[in-house]
Amino acid sequence: MRYSAFSIVRNALSGNLNWKQQWRQPQPKSHYDVIIVGGGGHGLATAYYLAKEFGVKNVAVLEKGYLGSGNVGRNTTIVRSNYMLPGNEPFYEFSMKLWEGLEQDLNYNVMLSQRGVIMLYHSDGQRDAYIRRGNAMWMEGVSAELIEREQLKKMIPFLNYDHARYPILGGLLQRRAGTARHDAVAWGYARGADQHGVDIIEHCEVTGIRRENGVVTGVETSKGFIGCGKLALAAAGNSSQVGEMADLKLPLESHVLQAFVTEGLKPCIDHVIVYGGGHFYISQSDKGGLVFGAEIDGYSSYAQRGNLATAEHVMEEGVSMIPGLSRVRVLRAWGGVMDMSMDGSPIIDRTSIDNLYLNCGWCYGGFKATPASGYCFAHLIARNDTHPVARALRLDRFARGYAVDEAGAGPQPNLH
Amino acid sequence: MASLITCPHCGVRPKEEFAVRGDASLIRPASSASDAAWHDYVYVRVNPRGRTLEHWHHVAGCRRFLVVERDTVTHEVYSVVDGAAAAREVRR
């Protein structure tokens, strides 16, 4: 069923009792051409593009929990393409362009809101760094604007401009960036994939990867053995565990990142604002809650909850940037497990096993990448060939000396 | 919880006094070792779900590197020993 204004009226008149389930609940078949491990945003997007763009329809997505229970439902919903390095920027801009057409493509309201993302600078050196980044974006055909202090004061009057340690001197703005409704992205891709014949199998945990003569023949799961022609891993924070089932050793460390939402307020924050004095970022949801987060907790963790000291630090950063936040009450806090890579950039690549494909290392930037990650991963799986915008995101880049280190932090995963 | 770390030199201290350096189970290869051995040492991590050994630097205390054994799921801390003592143990 396609959604339209007419379908809303028709279902309203029949008491909203006739809406159909958005995707089927199939039992697994004995064999698929492609099995994708992980029913998060990236796994579902991969399945959708495999079926729709690359004509591979005999596909299953295996999810150990319920659909969207991982990081796709735990992020702070920001989408942007304001990266600096040539290995990253074309990929994220490809993603941004897919975001701009996603609602029409999926026939699903993902509530994309291109409200603009502004990153604040607090010193001349940081201003220079942001000018450099803005120019790097222009080099890839992506618009960026430097907003100086007086102009910024008119745009966002409530910031702490005269902070003694981190005075706000201006910011780098990407107007096309913004937010999207994260759950709707998972549901929209799931519905789209399902309509193209993909089986989405929830509560089906992969417990082993069966191999014969050096190729994968299928996966052991909590619902029994399922055979496959190709196996694609998109397990985010649990990539090391799933990879280990096929003896893969990965350049990853899992860390916990927290996010927070406050009580609902009247519209007050019109943009996504990123603090340059720390790593704090904030936006306001359509329900009115302020959604924010900052750094990872710093120690490796698989717990989907964070530490109170980090929560306190995040709030301090927020209040330092917007003093008025001090009187807002926080409603909820949660944590997600980030697959932090050794250079802060993701991996979309083949592995040492011919029919095993890998998608991981998204650090805390995975949500914005969802469409491009799915598209490029599907391209790789279907054609056995890397998509042009994902060429720098190879697994062997560390060994070859081509790390894509946006933060310049070196091989220290908790610093990216 | 990993909120409190018992430093062998300073006693029970809040975790905010420490900086986490990373996996302490890795052993630095010889300088003449192969590129592959160095690649594994610098970039590849076991990333265990469960017990793990990590180097924690007590930056706001004795400034010693410690080896903390803890659980990455429950955050329970099992043991904390001085890094030099742990290294001697490995060499033995």
> Biggest sheet of chain B, strands in spatial order?
3-4-5-6
> Quaternary arrangement of the chains shown?
heterodimer
Give the biggest beta sheet of chain B. Answer: 4 strands, antiparallel
Counting helices, strands and paired strands, the structural category of chain A is alpha/beta
The tally of domains of chain B stands at: 1
**CATH top-level class of the domain at 116-177 and 253-341 in chain A:** Alpha Beta
Following the backbone from N to C, one meets helices and strands of chain A in this order, namely HEHEEHEHEHEEHEEEEHEEEEHEEEHH
CATH 2nd-level architecture of the domain at 116-177 and 253-341 in chain A: 2-Layer Sandwich
Task: Say what the CATH topology of chain B is.
Answer: Folate-binding fold
How many angstroms does the end-to-end distance of chain B come to?
A: 31 Å
- Low-confidence parts of chain A: none
Shape of chain A: globular
Give the count of helical stretches of chain A: 10
Q: The biggest beta sheet of chain A, please?
A: 8 strands, mixed
CATH secondary-structure class of chain B: Alpha Beta
Tell me the helix content of chain A: 25-40%
Please tag this protein with its features.
heterodimer; A: 416 residues; alpha/beta; D-Amino Acid Oxidase, Chain A, domain 2; eight-stranded mixed beta sheet; 18 strands; B: 92 residues; alpha+beta; Folate-binding fold; four-stranded antiparallel beta sheet; 2 helices; 20% helix; globular; FAD/NAD-bd_sf (chain A); SoxB (chain A); FAD-dep_OxRdtase (chain A); Sarcosine oxidase subunit beta (chain A)
